[in-house]
Amino acid sequence: MEQKTIVWIGAGRVATHLAPALAGAGLKTLQVYSRTEASAAALAGMLQASFTTDLSSVVSDADYYFFSVKDAVLPELVAALAPRCGAGAFLHTAGSIPLSVFEGLGLSRYGVFYPLQTFSHGRPLDMRAVPLFLEASSPAFAAELTALASSVSARVYSLTSSARRKLHLSAVFACNFVNHCYTLAGNLLAEEGIPFEALLPLIDETAAKVHRLSPAEAQTGPAVRYDRNVLDAQLAQLQDRPLCHDIYELMSRSIHEEAQKQNSEKQSI
After folding, report:
1. How many CA atoms within 13 Å lie on the side-chain side of 80?
2. Which of 105, 132, 174, 259 could form a disulfide with 82 if both were Cys (CB 3.0 to 4.6 A apart)?
């Protein structure tokens, strides 16, 4: 069987993790394009491929073109490459950009190849455990895309653009907002010289719980019962941090409302 080939448009964190996984599945990267030469060279070196910072120099004979770039520049890059490279399949890895970004450009095979994970440079991941969410321009290409995705992940799902947008939104709450809460917690600890590591057992147990319980069932703390004595005392400690004060107040209210909703649903059963 002829080896399939890839060109990577973008050399950021997603591409740096996904490209080696596809290489390990037997696909060959021909070229890496990035506006930043250092990024393009680094990923190309990892994949033993060529690189370019000139969009007009992107090779036109690859089987797949993976776009792993910022949402704001994706449409212009797709439109720029479609006339020369459109014989290949175009794929993007974004959570919030619809499949329609590829429409009206004369492309026949295009789709979405979205990995739901937080990626950081220098931190390896087991891509077999990373869920991949797919959307394709046709049933035939969907089957091809599923086979491709299954070569790198054991968790492959088909998802529409609208559902993927909601998935991406949920990931912001589950990952980015949670991580910011860690930052706020660390800032409070630092004021008293307490190391952030003191929270790690609590963080680990909180994360482990939701593998066995729903997040609502695992929720504890004063906000669940809306204990105003505790809430007001803690809010008083945040008077010099108005934004953090508002986050605490709104989060506590949201936790309590969700707890009331859960209790109401249990009572109605």
Report:
1. 13
2. 105
Tell me the C-alpha to C-alpha distance, in Å, between residue 143 and each of 58, 98, 147, 151.
27, 19, 6, 13
% pLDDT > 90, the chain:
92
Q: How far apart are the first and last CA of the chain?
A: 57
The amino acid at residue 119 is F
CB of 21 closer than 8 Å to CB of 45: no
> Minimal CA–CA distance to 151: which of 164, 132, 170, 168?
132
Would you call 50 exposed, middle or buried from its count of C-beta atoms within 10 A (0-12, 13-18, 19+)? Answer: middle
Please name each of the domains of the chain with its CATH number: 5-159 (3.40.50.720), 165-268 (1.10.1040.20)
Tell whether pTM > 0.85: yes
With a CB cutoff of 8 Å and minimum separation 6, the contacts of 58 are 7, 9, 31, 33, 52, 81, 84, 85
Instruction: Give per-residue pLDDT as tens, 119-167.
Output: 988 888 899 999 999 999 999 999 999 999 999 999 999 999 999 999 9
Q: What is the DSSP letter of 104?
A: T
Closest CA to 256 of 229, 222, 218: 222
